[in-house]
């Protein structure tokens, strides 16, 4: 299973991120490539506890859906709705300068993967309580999902 805990998996995500361009065409969804970068900034900030997001799920999402999303080796499907605080068309972070936003996202990915053994593990708003291992798996799978959205 790929995870940001593994250097080669993190390097793969960072390499793919660096191939993204502001004009990269989406394969699904509404976000532009730049909005997607800001969405990932918001979600990694949430994982680090610096962006507050309201909890939004019940027991099924916190157990069955969480296990399926993190541990079944199948790509996440397109079209899954996000929370308002993480939606770039609602309350999410607005795009600024593309290169600066890419650099900030890279720094957040480095930070979350370097905090191993010191990660406070906040609750995920949908999946609930998550270990450091689960957060680093989530970080890989979530990033992969959105990079695939833009063909990178």
SSE blueprint and pairings:
Blueprint: H1 7-19, H2 33-47, H3 59-71, H4 98-114, H5 132-149
Written account of the structure:
This protein is mostly helical and 152 residues long. The chain has a single domain, classed as Up-down Bundle (Four Helix Bundle (Hemerythrin (Met), subunit A)). It is built from five helices and no strands. Helix 1 packs parallel to helix 5, helix 2 packs parallel to helix 4 and helix 2 runs antiparallel to helix 5. It is globular. It starts with 6 loop residues before the first helix and ends with a helix.
Summarize this entry quickly.
This protein is mostly helical.
User: Beta-strand level of the residues, as a percent range?
Assistant: under 5%
Number of domain units: 1
Helical content stands at 40-55%
The level-1 CATH class? Mainly Alpha
CATH fold node name: Four Helix Bundle (Hemerythrin (Met), subunit A)
Oligomer state equals: single chain
Radius of gyration, rounded? 14 Å
Query: Helix count?
Result: 5
Query: How many E-type strands?
Result: 0
């Amino acid at each position: 299973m790929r995870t940001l805990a593994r250097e080669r998996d993190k390097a793969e995500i960072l390499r793919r991120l660096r191939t993204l361009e502001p004009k990269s065409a989406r394969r699904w969804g509404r976000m532009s490539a730049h909005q997607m970068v800001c969405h990932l900034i918001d979600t990694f900030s949430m994982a680090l506890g610096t962006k507050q997001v309201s909890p939004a799920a019940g027991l099924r999402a916190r157990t069955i859906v969480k296990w399926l999303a993190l541990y079944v080796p199948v790509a996440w499907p397109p079209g899954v709705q996000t929370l308002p605080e993480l939606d770039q068309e609602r309350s999410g972070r607005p795009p600024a300068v593309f290169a600066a936003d890419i650099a900030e996202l890279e720094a957040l990915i480095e930070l979350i993967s370097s905090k191993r053994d010191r990660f406070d593990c906040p609750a995920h708003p949908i999946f609930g309580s998550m270990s450091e291992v689960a957060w680093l798996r989530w970080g890989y799978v979530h990033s992969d999902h959105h990079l695939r959205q833009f063909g990178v």
